[in-house]
Specification:
Largest sheet: 2 strands, antiparallel
Low-confidence stretches: 42-51
Distance between the termini: 80 Å
Strand order of the largest sheet: 1-2
Number of helices: 6
Number of strands: 2
Radius of gyration: 37 Å
Amino acid sequence: MIKFFRKIRQKLLTENKFNRYFIYAIGEILLVVIGILIALQINNWNERQNLSNTELALIEELDDNLKASKKEIQLVIESHKQSIRWHKELIYHINKDLPYSNKLDTIFGNIATWASPYLTLSAFETLKIEGLGIIKSKKIKDWITLVYESDFNYIINDYDRYEWERAKQTTLPFAEKYIRRDLESDLAIPNDFDKLKRNNEFINLLHSNIWLRENGIELYELVIKDIDTLSNHIESELKLRRK
């Protein structure tokens, strides 16, 4: 009988020891799983934080780029306005049949020139690599698309390209034929001003240049409004995110 109870006792001890080991093993596994889940959560949080930091840095750079592009466009607008004033001065001399004046040297020196805007696009180029999806605000994404893909694209690939093509095909060949440039300055004088005043091709060129520059000013002013709107959205977002 004693031997029997000893066997029972030994069996129970063995089973209890196995149960303890089993529970311990399950606990270890659970700890490992919990540790992995925590590590994944931390990693995901870090990734989201890194994306958020990248987004903030990008929209801050975008805002700086937009301000630089706006200043450049404002300079082009002023240059266009000056070009229009010069062209109208020449038309006035023609209409009044006035004699040549030395102040016209500057005008003839710039008759075939125009101002091109050099837009700052570095942040947008980075954004194209990162993907527009990195920007959380739909409003900002929509305005980025409008300003960069529509406004800036039209300025560079349509309006300014037309200026280049027109200069190569019309304005520069005309200037080389009828206007002599001074080699030591930006001044120029017509070969025969009285004859040029009766040249309908020249008068048409002046009127076309005025029309083109006036349309350019309207375009650039609309683009500036879009830039201001996008900048305001970006600055509002930055203030909100920095609180």
